[in-house]
Structures are given as C-alpha cells and as structure tokens.
Design a protein that fits this description.
Radius of gyration: 21 Å
Number of strands: 0
CATH topology: Na+/H+ antiporter like fold
Distance between the termini: 65 Å
Strand content: under 5%
Number of domains: 1
Amino acid sequence: MITETSFIQIFGLLGGLFVLAFFANQQSQRTRVPDVIILMITGLVLGPIAGWIKADQFATFTQYLGTFALILILFQAGSELHVRDAVHHFPGAVLFGFLTYGLSVTAITYIGLWVLKLPLHQALLLGAAFGCTSSTLVVPVLQQFDVRGAVSVILILEAALGDIVSVISVGSLIDIPQGNTVVSGLLTGFVFETSIAVILGVIAGLSWSHARSRFAAHRFYGALHIGGVLLVYALVEVVGGSGLLAVLAFGLTLANVPNGANEADAEGVLIFHSDLSFLVRSFFFVLLGASVEFIGQPYLVATGLILVGLFLARMISIYTTGWVLPGIGEPEKKLILGLFPRGLVNAVLSIQIAARQPDMAFLPAMTFTVIVVTSLLMVVGVFRFRPRSPG
C-alpha cells in the first residue's frame, strides 16, 4: 500500500532528479562530462548501492520510457538535418555507418560462435544487439558541446540509421522460424520494413507540413505536434514497418518542406519538444543506472573481446572511408573514433532477446557493462576533441 509518506518521497525524488539533470546538463559544457554519465551514476547510487529505487518494479515502465525517449530523439535528429547538408555528406556517412555496423556485427557474431559457443541464429542476434551506436547518447552530446558541421551530420546519420537497422535486424531474426533460412528471412524483413517506413513517414511529413499552419498559433500546438509524432510511429508499426525510421523520415520531411507556420510558433514547438525529450531521457538514464547488473565472470572475456571488436571495427571504417567524408580532418576522425557509445536501443534489444531466448539470459548484464565502458570512452573522446580553427 502506498502511504502519504511514499507519495512525498516519490515526488521529492522526481524533483531532485530533474534539478540534478538541469545542473548536470549546465555543467557538462564546462566539464565536458556528458550529463547522461552523471545521471546513470546517480541511478547506480540510488539503486544497487543505497537501495532507494527498486528497479525491478519499473522494468516494464523502463522499456516503454526508453522507446518514448528514442522516438523523441530520432524525430529531433531528423528535424535538425537539412537536406543540403545531409545530401552532401549522405553517401560518405552511409558508407561509413554501414561498414562500421557490418564489421561490428561480423566481429561480435564470430565471438558469439567461437567464444560463447552460441548457434548461428543466437550469435547473429548478439551481433545485431551490439552493432549500433546509441543516438540517445550521441545526439545529446553533440548538442551540449555545440559540435556542428560535417562531423555532426555524419555522427547523427550513423547513429540514427544504426539504431533503426539494429531494431529491424533483431525483430526480423527473432521472428524467423528456426527452419527458415536466416539470411533470406532477414533481408525480406529489412526491405519490407524500411520501404513502408520511408514511404509513410514522408507522406505523413508532407501532409502535416501543409496542415500545421492552421494550428501553429494555438496555445497547445506543441502537445498536438507530439501526438502526431507518436501516431506516425504507432500506425507504421501496425502495418509492419519500422516506426523509428518513419519518425526520422517524418522529422526530416518537416524540416525541409516549406510551410506557412510562423517562425516564432515553430520555435516554440521545438522548445517544447526539446524540454520533453530532456525530461524523458533524464528519467530513463537514472532508471538505467538503477537497473545495473554486472556481468558474471564466465562472460568477462567475451565482453572484453566485444569491446575490442567494436573499437577495431570503428577504426578500420573511419580510416578506410575518410576519402569520402568531406570536411573530416584528423581531429574529427579522433572524435568519431571515440564516439561509439552503446545505450538505450542496445539495452532494450537485449532485454527483448533475453525474454525470447532463455539461453541468452546473460545478455542484459553484458549490455550494461558495454554501455558503461563505451560511455566512459565517449567522455575521453569528447574531452580531447579540439576542432580545427577556421583559418
């Protein structure tokens, strides 16, 4: 039974977390330590160490909250990509992103086969779960430290597309009957989901861009706008497409199609969306820290090899595709090399896989360990980054 004291504690805790999130974000630009690191550490203290938060009570809520945060962040990422910049960097970013993802999945699948002794189907699931960088970490970090230009576009495209490819790949692999061919089933699911998502996302963006000028001056237009984003995600998922890719395409279309909305109204919507995204992701990362599980000793070697494989895959990709990445010099390459954090989508996918594959119950704990280490490496990469002077 929840007592009045419990209610006071809950609201006091929420208030304290949001105040902490604000000051962590404010100080991050001075200390160059991303606020998500402070939030996860706070969750670790409040959960496993102090025992004030019982993470198992929020397990289902954490998954929903994580998906909501991912929807908001991918929409925001699409809204901040302008076609001129994206088209200029798109070929190189896609080549770099898919090469990095492919090498990462290949390396981790090999580790799953030969170190963990998993069957091919489960080894591919392991690779797909760890293959992508986390847009929920990369995008906020780029915003906080005002990293713009070519490196920002490339990292946003890589992270956003990687999240989507991982979600589609894991979903397709989980749904493949054991007797079917893995490769054919994966390719069929991938092509169908991406095609549906892009088509419907662009159509929704074109439709909304013409209609929103009629509602832009309304006091609660921001809430209507968020409702539209969630409806796009839900409807595309219902028809079998990738809701996340549709949300990205929806935001990208809205950002690049002329409309009659007043600039001040549009700015107000962006502020509302940014504030909501900040609150949701702040609460999620505290819960993620509170849900910490450390990897057991039998899997330490495999986890270490996964981290090495992710780093080598990224290093090979950045130095073999540098010639098709305009505006990327040595400082930018070092930043890209250090920014390969695993985060929200990897955690959600790991939980889903463990629920469907009992033999992979170790995966969530392994994922948290990888998230922590790659986040710390991201801190080092951001801290050392010094952009080239214009001259």
